Amino acid sequence: MQSPRERSEVRPRAGWMVMGKRGRPSALDVWRVLAVFLSLFPVVSLQCKILRCNSEFWASTSNSGPEEEFCTALRAYNTCVRRTARTCRGDLAYHSAQHGIEDLMSQYNCSKDGPTSQPRIRTPLPPPPPPILPDSQERSDGPEVCHYERSLSRNTAPPNYTHCGFFGDPHLRTFSDDFQTCKVQGAWPLIHNKYLSVQVTNTPVVLDSLTTATSKLTIIFKNFQECVEQKMYHAETDELPAAFADGSKNGGERNGANTLRVVEKVPGQHVEIQARYIGTTIVVRQVGRYLTFAVRMPEEVANSVEEGDNQDLYLCLNGCPVNQRIDFRNFRARTAEAQVAGRTRSGVAAAGFTYQTAKARCKERLPVEDLYFQSCVFDLLNSGDINFTMAAYYAFEDVKMLHSNSKRYHIFEKDAFMRNAAQRGKDLFSVFLTDLLAVLLWIECCTGHL
């Protein structure tokens, strides 16, 4: 293996690195410079949308090709960067990209006038292949510790896999298959354990409405042994990158780096992140103007708590706080009463949906009247946004791909009611035992004084 000194030379003007055939710059080396600025100033960079330009340049130059193609991609990169000038002024990543483009244009004699490669057309891909099962992970490279099932003891029972989904207005399916509709406006943690953290930011769907939907999503994969370096994936409305925030598509330079990778299924609409070193698959989609999230994860990983950490607020593990939940049945009853009385709600009137027309529209994609169907109806009545129909549809498709138990794909309202009733029963029983213990202690104390 060549040493870093043999692999690259440093350009004096802007610190851009050159390597490969004919001294052609590698997109990976270009991104190493940009990654420094993105990691130092992540919030500013994400606000000014420079990340999208970087991702498109990375995608168009990741495979080697003629210098003419490189110049074409460079001109497209330059055009994209110039479009962000107003919102990125003062951003060091933006100014670094400007200087780097000028260096590369000059070095490779690229004309500023000429064809530019356009962003790839968002054409649907063929149906995705079957989900990658743990057995197939053994074909990947890297140390044994970087393959979750192979790293387990031979005498250990096969791991149980759990699923969590978050979509729509928003609706949450927890690791324990509880289904809830929540308000949760602002930033909320979905998952936080020894291996990764997931946070969503939800914004109101309709003005003066309690319901929200996800407009930003951040996933941090933590540094793990000789397998992967710490990586951050950030998505927001109209920006679903095909790479991590530093421009890479895998876990870095370590031996097990390929056990963490980003796979773009449909450009700008569907990304899958495979973290095989922890047996985890994450699906992120943009449907309409909002994001959806789904994950398949071993129970051991889902429940791995960092010492001293309180997991009460992690939505995938414990659900939404009680004061943040919305009751389906109460909402339906209020909607029906308003329609019978001739009153209108802003979301319903805007799209002209009644309870019956919303049911008919959702039935086209979700023929089984489970809670995914009910969430679709709720979202249409509450927002009037037809895209929420597809959000519920894709959420259920992700369940079929990621959930380990086909008998539990569907969750029905009566199941949720019984589960909540059982939980309330447990809570009341706990209160009863506490009160009984207090009474017994009081009696014993009084008896001792007599």
Biggest beta-sheet profile: 8 strands, antiparallel
SS field, number of helical segments: 15
Overall pLDDT, averaged? Answer: 78
Estimated radius of gyration: 26 Å
Content-based structural category: alpha+beta
Distance between the termini: 86 Å
Fraction of residues in H or I helices: 25-40%
What overall form do the CA principal axes indicate?
A: globular
- Give helix and strand order, one letter per element, not per position: HEEHHHHHHEEEEEEEEEEEHHEHHHHHH
The amount of beta strand, in percent, is: 15-25%
Strand order of the largest sheet: 10-11-12-13-3-4-5-14
Summarize the structure.
The chain has helices at 4-7, 27-40, 42-47, 50-61, 67-83, 85-88, 92-107, 299-302, 315-318, 328-340, 346-351, 355-363, 371-383, 387-402, 413-449; strands at residues 9-10, 17-18, 161-167, 171-173, 179-182, 186-192, 196-204, 212-221, 231-236, 260-266, 270-275, 280-287, 290-298, 325-326. By secondary structure, it is an alpha+beta fold.
